[in-house]
Amino acid sequence: MRCLKITLKTHSDTRWASKYNAVHSLYCQFGGVIKALRDISTNPIFGDGVANAESILKQFDLEFAYFLVMWDKILNQIYRVNKLLQSSNISIDQASKMINCLNVSLQEMRDSGNEQIKTEAISICDKVGIKSELKIKRTIKRKVMSGENSSREDISADQFLTLEYYKVLDNMVAQMKWRFEQLSNIADDFQFLSAHSLSVTPVEKLKKYAADLAIKYNEDIDQEIINEIEFFKYQVKAILPDLNATALNILNAIKKYELDSTCPNLMTAYRLFLTMPVTVASGERSFSKLKLTKTYLRSTMSQNRLTNSAILSIEHEITKSIDFEDVIEDFASIKSRKIKF
Question: Which GO terms describe its molecular function (predicted)?
């Protein structure tokens, strides 16, 4: 349609990005969609599309505009954090802070954003020529318990929108806290290994945190980490000029100054922390890449070749940096049938 600059998107039940793209494309082009539907509904050349367009237009009212604005603002916040969480370089502590900040922003939106959304929805309706009035009152039906009289609580349509707004955000904040509770606990377990904590936390507290960590991850870390953390606390200022360094910077500094033999348990703790996945996005990408690698033309390849092909495809940046002349020469020398005298 010439009325639309961006194609309207469909949404997926499993991808937050698709939900935001679907809502945002409609939000940005709401006026254009209304115009296109009006053109279709008045043009008999579209046949059955005329009735469909008229039916859709009847659903576009102030209530629809209100929920469109509401979901665009909510999904905008979630979408941007979701993109950051899928980064390959993000650590658990950074992810935990981002999610906490997202919860704060949603809570602030819940406390003070309702009237702003109503105002914007009314403004959108006025621009596109939709009545900026709520149609009917809603009736809340409450389940009657034994011994109670039947009752109905009548509320205005405006109160209904407000209740739905609070219900959505309250449920979302509660779900976010529940789903990422374990992530937050893991970040707290390793918090004492940050450069700032090592520099300002007393030795006795650091030793207590290290002992708790050794108990929790007893298959990888032993109690010797208590002595290592006491030693490392006073060395961290020497090997790290920046006390805001990340866990990866600290691990690289340990390797650079050859402290891995002195503090093996500490190094294991940093490796555990940095290799714990924040999301399952990388695993899902691997399966997506596998579908692209194993086509119907490669249906007879062996498992070993499929695995190697998938690794080359997933790690394409490393693959591009390989000098294939050396690889070819190594392969030729292995397969060579000539006898050297």
Answer: protein dimerization activity
